[in-house]
Amino acid sequence: MIWKIVLVCLFVFNFATGVLAQDQLHQIKMVKGGFDPQEIKINQGDKVNFINQDKVDRWPASNIHPTHGIYPEFDPKKPIEPNQSWQFQFDKSGFFKFHDHLNPSLTGTIVVKGINEVVVKKKRQKPNIANFFSKIYYKIFPAKLEADLKTFDAVKIASDQSKLEYWIPIIGGEKFMEKLVVDSRGGSKVDCHQESHLVGRTAFELEGKKVFKKPSYNCHSGFLHGAMEAFIAQVGQKDLIKEVSKLCQSFNTDFGKFECLHGIGHGLAAYEDYNIPAALDLCKKLSSDYGRRSCYGGIFMENIMVDEGRGAIKGHKTNWVSNDPLFPCSGVDKDYFVQYECYQMQTSRMLHMFDYKFSLISSECQNAPQDMVEVCFKSMGRDTAGQTLRDPLKIVDLCQITPHQYFRSCIRGALNVIIDFWGDSIKDQPQKLCQRLNEDDQGFCYGILGNRLKDIFGQDKNKIRLVCNENDKRYIDICINGTAQS
Question: What is the pLDDT of residues 73-132, one digit of tens each?
């Protein structure tokens, strides 16, 4: 009798699990102007049938465009012609944004419920025989490696993905960045920020999360920003904010935490296909005002960079620019911190609109909302440093274009750029800017430097003192104590 009951139970269990295990088929229509529906919720293992009801070819694929790296299998690898369809089975659970590869402004979302979360892992690389033998060769003949490093131009290689993928496994991301700084002449030949973005992304894809243990902060921390972009591309949406917050908290200085959080903003802008309000909403999920503000700044910087063709993902475009010099600031959330971080980047957009005429930027900043005028001039200072490759004399000359009451705001922005460019490799360039100022403004300048040194070096007073000892002796105490002058 008992064995009959067991058989019945097994039959019922097998029948039930068989029914539950049947894959469900969901439909998404590709219609003119988008996807219908734009968002669906399915179970792990379900299939989605993408039906092209448009009159042109369509190509649904995982974010981030154009690499489709978040869920690379979710990609038909070719266009879907009108009246044709393509099916994909979602074996991973998570929150997957997708787009039309032929028109990336058309987007959608598929939420896949299940027990298996998307795992963060480094990109699986194909075996590279050339790398393998080169590593062995250079290990046997290290002098040959040093000789070869002297002959290649890291600036050019940093713009060539295949060459980066050859050299980084041999020398590592950290050493490549050292060479990039040398070959860019400390950023005086070329700004090297965008090049270091690509180095960071490639290093993360090849080396995984260990790149965050000792990241390079040179070239405005572009290496770290690029690595964050690649990290975000491999994290499931469900735990995205949790994972990036945890990562950024592992940095041991305020400067490191800021650059990590700022890098999140760059990555989120790309992740959201440059839908700036959507990216800002993700930043708002961070737990502190400091984290949210740092993230906002990365978003607005990335938005401008992609418009200039220098964004996280080549070939992408943003709709969040216009002929209005104050847009997107005038078109996004009016939250004070969102506005502040937007206006702190906005003059970079104006530069291109006004053909690099800082006099026109100075005039336009005065049209900003009253509580953002000073912030706009701080942004102008940031751009004076960037455009002059941090030349102290040229920075002072350009900041003198501003109305007198905003001169210090301009200098503050320029000084911050110099400090941010070098990070913990900082030497005497900030002091040279301070020395170019009149006596009334020098104390103000050294005070800002001292406060920023605390961000960079934390409680390491010896390193702070070492930088401050390069100052005019009258201002050493102000620098060491970080006593900002008003």
Answer: 899 999 999 999 999 999 887 778 899 988 887 889 898 887 544 444 444 455 567 777
pLDDT tens readout for residues 31-68: 999 999 999 999 989 999 999 999 999 999 988 776 67
Q: How many residues does the chain have?
A: 486
Pairing of strands 85-89, 47-52: antiparallel
Start-to-end CA distance of the chain, whole Å, equals 91
With CA atoms as reference, report the closest residue to 372 among 400, 322, 409. Answer: 409
Beta strand pairing call for 60-62 and 34-36: unpaired
State how far the Cα of 16 lies from the Cα of 156, in Å rounded to an integer.
Answer: 61
State how far the alpha carbon of 13 is from the alpha carbons of 5, 20, 21, 24, 350, in Å.
Answer: 12, 10, 12, 20, 67
Per residue in 244-256, pLDDT (tens digit) is 889 999 998 888 8
Which string of DSSP letters, residue by residue, matches 57-97?
-B-EEESSTTTT-SSTTS--SSPBPTT-EEEEE--S-EEEE
Answer whether 449's CB lies under 8 Å from 479's CB.
yes
The token duo for 477 is 């105490």
Question: How much is the pTM?
Answer: 0.73
101: helix, strand or coil: coil
Determine phi and psi for 184, rounding to 5 degrees.
Answer: -90, 5
Sheet holding 25-31, edge to edge: 34-36, 25-31, 47-52, 85-89
Q: How many CB atoms lie within 10 A of CB 96?
A: 20
Tell me the pLDDT tens digit for each residue of 212-255: 988 888 887 889 888 888 888 777 566 788 888 899 999 988 88
The total of other beta-carbon atoms located within 10 Å of residue 34's CB is 16
Alpha-carbon gap, residue 48 to 26, rounded angstroms: 5
User: Hey, which residues does 113 pair with through a beta bridge?
Assistant: 43
pLDDT at 21: 45
Cα–Cα distance measured from residue 373 to residue 340, given in angstroms and rounded to the nearest whole number: 10
Query: In sequence order, what DSSP letters do the residues of 254-311 get, joined into one string?
Result: HHHHHHHHHHHHHHHHHHTTT-HHHHHHHHTTSSSHHHHHHHHHHHHHHHHHHHTT-S
Q: Are 368 and 376 in contact (CB under 8 A)?
A: yes
Tokens (6 digits) for 364: 């336009």
What whole-number distance in Å separates Cα of residue 274 and Cα of residue 316? 9
What tokens were used for 446? 């050294």
Nearest Cα to 44, choosing from 113, 118, 119?
113
CB neighbour list of residue 231: distance below 8 Å, 6 or more residues apart = 120, 204, 209, 244, 247, 267
Q: Is 185 left (phi over 0), alpha (psi -120 to 50) or beta?
A: left
